[in-house]
What does this fold into?
Amino acid sequence: MVLMNPGPVMVDERVRAALTRPDMCHREAEFSALMTAVREKVTRVCGGGPEYSSIVITGSGTASLEAVISSVIPSGGRLLVLDNGHYGERLAAIAGRHRVPCVSIERGWSHPFDPAQLERALQADPQITHVAVVHHETSTGMLNPLHAIGEIAARHGRWLIVDAISSVGGEIFGVCEDNVAWCIGTANKCIEGIAGLSFVTAPKKNWEALKAIPARTYYLDLWKLYAAQEHQNAPPFTPAVQAFFAFDVALDLMLEEGVGARHQRYAALAAQLRAGLDAAGFELLLPAEHRSNTLTAIYLPEGMNYSSLHDRLREAGFAIYAGQDALKNRVFRLANMGQITAADIGRFLDALGRVLASSAGGRAGLGK
Ligand SMILES: *Cc1c(COP(=O)(O)O)cnc(C)c1O
It folds into this structure.
């Protein structure tokens, strides 16, 4: 099966092989060394220098998001969420669940942000201490203007929290040049590790300042997780040891390829996919200037329902992805992250063409 869902992605054979290494105790020196190596490589992938540090959490990307949102905002603080899709909505929902004071700028799904709106919101509300944004809004495929947002947040002295779960490794950005105070990512999307680990990268001074902020959860207490990994060189709880083996190999492959080169590889696959979709008459949700390089949201042709498209492509060996919430049954999504090749994309476009030709609406239903 060729996976065209936005994670977990298809991984390199060497990443999968690492899962079968001999068992290891997480309280022994070997694991400390592995964990430290993984943390340092994560920091490098995120563009952080020696003044940055990362921690790795056993749990999917949401675990790290929830750890950050529930741990970094003091009781007198306030979070401003920039929301233009499912994952933006979730940032506010997580804040709400932990009773973190939170306001949102809602742009509506697939609408781009105007950075001037953030500027005005920060000027108008001095209570806001933190701003949170999703870098790549995976529900629509929109890449939000992180650099402009980071510049405004820094100029106004606010901390920027970035959900980079579907962009880190695949898009060009850096915690340093984009003024990111807290960067959240995952092992199993563009870094091409296996599912089960996620991470947080931040300047060391931000980490140290957490000590003074009471945590709202026990397991996801970011200060406790950091203090254990950074100061005791040990995880506080039992980690997914085998997932660490695989993540370490994936990070080596990532750094060997280079963030720039991986971005180029993904961009070429996205361009190939989009050219094929365009030639077949499909209409994409977003204009070209707002698209990420790893996910494409496509309007479902009139007369075609998602589940039949999904099932027919699945029979042909391709896993595609549905639209979420408001876009359910209006769009379908195709990701080109992970170990997917130009040949896979070519075969996918052929299979899609066959499904279209034989479906009731056929090409005539595309309206192009
Ligand atoms: C995938 C994704 C998440 C959720 O990650 P899980 O690993 O499923 O918890 C959060 N934010 C964005 C932008 C994502 O793409």
In short: The CA atoms of residues 174 and 342 lie 28 Å apart. The chain is about 40% helix and 15% strand. The mean pLDDT is 96. The longest strand covers residues 52-58.
